[in-house]
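Q: How do we represent a protein-ligand complex in a form that can be generated token by token?
A: Start from the inputs.
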Amino acid sequence: MNSAQLSDDLITTVLVIYALAFCLQAAGLAVERVKRNTRKSPNMATAAVGARYVPDGGITEVAHDRSGYGVVGRMGTVLLGFGFVLNLSSVILRGMAAGRAPWGNMYEFAIVGAAAIVAAYLAGLRVYPIERIGIWVIGLALVILGCAVTILYTPAADLIPVLNSYWLAIHVAAAIIAGGAFTVAAVASLAQLLRRRHRSDGEADSLEGVSYGLILFAFPVWTFAVIAGAVWAEAAWGRYWGWDPKETWAFITWVFYAAYLHAQSTAGWRGRRAAWFSLLGYAAFIFNFVGVNIWLPGLHSYAGV
Amino acid sequence: MSKRSTSVRPSHGWGWARWVWRTLTSMRTAVVLLIFLALAAVPGSFLPQRNVASDPASVQRFYLEHPGIAPWLDRFSLFDVYAAPWFAAVYMLLLVSMMGCVLPRCARLWRECRAAPARPPTQLSRLERFREFPSDVPVDAVLSRAAEFLRRRRYRVVLTDTDVRAEKGYLREVGNLAFHLSLLVLLVGVAIGKLFGFEGRAALAEGETFTNVQSSYDAFTPSALTQVDGLTSFSMTLESLDAEFALGGPRMGEPRAFDARVTYTRDDGSAESTNIRPNQPLNIEGTKLFLSGHGYAPRVTVRDGDGEVAFSGPVIFLPMDGNFTSDGVIKAPNASPVQLGFQGLLLPTGPGRESDRSQFPDLFAPRLDLTAYTGDLGMDSGLPQSVFTLERAGLEKVGDQSLRVGETMKLPDGAGTITFDGVDRFANFQIAYDPGKEISLVAAIMLMVGLTASLLIRRRRVWVRCSQSSRGVIVEMAGHSLTRRGSPAADFDDLVRALTEPTSPEARS
Ligand code: HEM
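Then emit the structure tokens for the protein with protoporphyrin IX containing FE bound:
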């Protein structure tokens, strides 16, 4: 069996494993809820995630109690980690099959993107108590992989000459890493908005801390991706910035996230408003990867959308 | 600002101006302006744009398809969004707001750097991190140990009789400042490029030579201050162009490699050979030449009714589809007794008769379909004419034929002949000169470094205070972050450990 074939088969396996992890996480949440209801302790939700706002606005993570999450959910996390390793292997095999960085078309963006999202979630899990949003993150990864194997699939092949540059590896890798973190941040912001916000809702605050931390990491990485793209554009097309639709939406994404960071430093804008900016930034990011490739003509046309 | 309470002075004009300035430079305005900037960039990605290189004819096409709304969109600069006055207004306001916001912060930073770290607040236990413990070591020993520990961690430390005050992370503010100022530098870089640079295009068939003067360009877009007469002087000959396409597999026909072999001669007469490929431009003293496209140029010989050669050479045909079905026009205005013109279609891999679409982008079985015209080409009228169209008004169609290489088409009534000699390739070069890009690159690096510093570094303070009570020494420690993110736990916990552990040689190393 050659490595291209192996990569394709692995992706199918990963889909199954992520689906199982999804079910386990769902079961874990259900078990926890039942336990909580029988215990009739309305404060459990807040107690399980312990982040605390200090008066001047800094967030401190205090040691949090993850025990409420349950054995079943934790098994889901372990399975997710296993799926991630296979996902990463399939990406590497794909790269070996094509003899280049494995992110040259939409199918490849999708499988690397799914890996980046799961990686961002697993990394986030080491710092923040975000088990509760895990189910949404896995759900997203499943949808992306599902699209990859059904509508986006293309066999491994060489690149068109203009993509054939080491800048592809640098620029797109940075964009995808930032994308993984932006995704988990957006899920956290959405969860934050969906919680009806009381004055001192510990869980909403904790979710805000998660999205803030992840965006703090992802924003410079995204900035780097945009700059690397500009340097590459200068080498490939003779201008470093030309308001091509792809460039324009990268800029829009960047400015929305800059607004998010400023909102976090603005009295009265933290909380729900800032969360909306996080979602706006993410919408622009996703539109750039999906909408621009499909609807807007430009120089950034990838073979086999 | 303590002035606010006393500003009931009757200074109408100034009070108003101060209010405007304070509003403009507030953080809330920054957020709103940033959102405006993002939204203002959106329409340019959906509507065709004049100065976006990918398709120069797109605005004209939009005008034809939507004659009703196009002039209205144009009135609001919507075909030129990124050069529109309202777009400029948003980013200029943003930059002014930014300066008004960031410069005072810098001044404050400068003062704080020269002052000693702040004295501890009375209620240390209210701060983000707090620890209190008894100690059996004398006060001055505890404090000097704490001071030494913090100095080793590169805090700025002040040691008094009763407390230690320490602060670190000033670089965060420096980074923030560098980052915001880099945006101004970037604007300068972009502006220089937009004022002095130019962009152009030129197509060259194999063997042809390009001289860097404005008239040699097929398209040339100078800027306001471009020195059109002072272009870097050089000439460049396209020796050959190689193209490679995927011969099989799922992506059959997709390009795999382009390689233009060129020889260029500088002003001083020195000649050099090199290759231009995608992602590998040729740079001649800041003027850069990029291989941006390619196509085919059939070589033909046209003889007129007298048997004289009226035209001979390659003619550039423009590709129309992915398999390089290309169309073009051959004109022989010098033919006598009547002028000759040909409308042509070139199929690099042409099937027999059944189709007029090329089957593959490479040159496997070229076929040239010609429609011949005689009469007046209309080239003497003085009006400029495109080399890619025939002015049919004065012409009469006299026949059509498909030719393979080497074949000749005879026109009726002895009007002349045309021979298909072969096919050359041509290369499209994008030629650009941007004297501001080094400045923009410096700005980008400054931006990246400043941003990383301002996001990673946490400015934070630590205080240690000792008091002598009846039961011994009580140590109070507090730490707090001046940034949105909390201060790192590790520093604090290590300090606690260093102060509670019994003094031993290891603890000090
Ligand atoms: C031109 C567009 C601007 C961009 C792209 C931008 C971007 C950024 C970014 C990415 C940060 C880092 C966020 C952080 O440290 O948490 C930041 C911080 C900051 N920006 Fe801007 N900014 C812009 C304009 C402005 C303006 C107009 C103001 C003032 C009205 C301003 C004031 C500040 C301040 C005070 C900080 C530090 C915030 C803090 O200490 O938490 N910026 N900016």
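Chain B has four domains: 14-112, 117-168+458-508, 196-294+430-438, 295-427. Residues A 258, 261-262, 265; B 25, 27, 30, 34, 94, 97-98, 101-102, 105, 176, 180, 183, 451, 454-455, 483-484 surround protoporphyrin IX containing FE (CB under 6 Å).
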